[in-house]
Amino acid sequence: MLYGRSAEISALYEVITRARDGFGGAVVLRGEAGTGKTALLDAAAARGGAMRVLRTTGVESESDLAFAALHQVLWPATGSLDALPEPQRAAVRAALGLAVGGAGDRFLLGAGVLSLLAEAATPDGLICVIDDFQWVDRASADALLFAARRLATERIAMLLAVRADAPVRGVPLTVDVRGLPESAAAELLESRHGVG
User: Fold this and answer.
1) Looking at residue 189, what is its pLDDT?
2) H helices within the chain, ranges in order?
3) Residue 127 is inside which H or E element, if any?
4) CB burial of residue 46 (10 Å; 0-12, 13-18, 19+)
5) CA–CA separation, 158 and 25 (whole Å)
6) What is the average pLDDT across 77-92?
7) Sheet containing 174-176, strands listed edge to edge, beginning at the edge strand earlier in sequence
């Protein structure tokens, strides 16, 4: 149970519910380290029911490694690559290291990421979770944000968590995550340690 997080959870569930109904979208959880963003992402992903979950976490040591985060989040969906149009398929295959050559055109890669996520959303919808977005490599971030801005007719909810000062371009819905209110912190302590 998450204490003192009803507003944040409601905002995440709203995005997921809309996506399940075919009106996809993205939301950014913004807060300092240790405020509970990862716990909120986990709780939201667990409430998706039959929706598929694809997930990645930005890693500081891989932030200069092009397509590292994209590889992690899309790898479980590579079985659907053949459903993509050839130019998009070639761009995604190259970005994921499945073909020789570079990812080429950034538009084709972004479109391919969106198409592959849409394939992964069949039949029950998809929750795409990206934690520590501030450490996602630039190439992956560009492709994921391209897709995030085009989810309106897809059954995809994209949830991004980021440290407070890191930019996330083009995702209008932001939920601020702050430290727990004193009453919620006391309730949490009581439930875990019998301290009140």
Assistant:
1) 42
2) 6-20, 37-46, 68-74, 86-95, 106-120, 138-148, 182-193
3) strand 126-131
4) exposed
5) 6
6) 96
7) 52-57, 126-131, 156-163, 25-31, 174-176
Tally of residues, the chain: 196
Cβ count within 10 A of residue 108: 19
Question: Kind and range of the H or E element at 157?
Answer: strand 156-163
Amino acid at 130: I
Q: Name the residue among 36, 98, 40 with its Cα closest to residue 70.
A: 98
Residue 34 gets the label, from left (phi > 0), alpha (psi -120 to 50) or beta, of left
Domains in the chain, ordered, with CATH?
A: 7-178 (3.40.50.300)
Residue type present at position 186? A
Helix axes 106-120, 86-95, angle to 10 degrees: 90
Please say whether the beta carbons of 67 and 74 come within 8 A: no
- Record the pTM: 0.88
Helix (H) or strand (E) holding 29: strand 25-31
Comparing C-alpha atoms, which of 14, 53, 23 is closest to residue 152? 23
Rounded Cα distance between 145 and 149, Å, is 6
Q: What is the pLDDT of residues 18-51, one digit of tens each?
A: 999 999 999 999 999 989 999 999 999 998 999 9
